[in-house]
Design a protein that fits this description.
Layout lengths: L1 H26 L4 H22 L4 H22 E5 L4 E7 L2 E9 L2 E4 L5 H18 L6
Antiparallel strand pairs: 1-2, 2-3, 3-4
Helix pairs in contact: 2-3, 2-4, 3-4
Length: about 140
């Protein structure tokens, strides 16, 4: 009879443990701003590396040093969303008609995947450079 009672206690403990994990996951699921900040940070880091290699293009390099963070922030605000699944969330980048999952969030953290690669970063650099050119007054183009 003790064995039956012990099995019921084990099932209850497992249930409570799982309920606590799910409640914690729900309460600590990162908000969209955290997804955007983490992607912005990673993208800025990748673009910094690429721009160091492109120092020959003085105009693009100087534009990046002067206003790169603003342009990355604008890019992220425009093209990044968060898919909320209540217990976890995904960072999604919408780019050139495609949608890429580039991060996963859970338990208060956002992890950027290797899907955000150099090719995607270089493509975004080209877009950011075009944004810079478009924002210049007509006489500077």
């Amino acid at each position: 009879m003790n064995k039956t009672k012990n099995r019921n206690n084990t099932g209850g403990i497992i249930f409570i443990f799982l309920a606590v994990i799910l409640l914690t996951a729900f309460l600590t699921n990162p908000k969209e701003e955290i997804h955007q900040e983490r992607l912005e940070s990673k993208l800025t880091e990748m673009i910094d590396e690429i721009m160091e290699e492109r120092q020959d293009d003085l105009v693009a390099y100087s534009a990046w040093k002067l206003g790169g963070n603003l342009f990355v922030r604008t890019f992220v605000d425009r093209y990044v969303t968060r898919d909320n699944y209540y217990f976890c969330s995904l960072t999604r980048l919408h780019w050139e008609g495609e949608s890429y999952i580039v991060g996963i969030g859970g338990f208060g953290n956002v992890y950027i995947t290797k899907r955000l690669n150099r090719e995607l970063a270089e493509s975004s650099i080209d877009h950011i450079e075009q944004m810079v050119i478009d924002s210049l007054p007509g006489f500077m183009k």
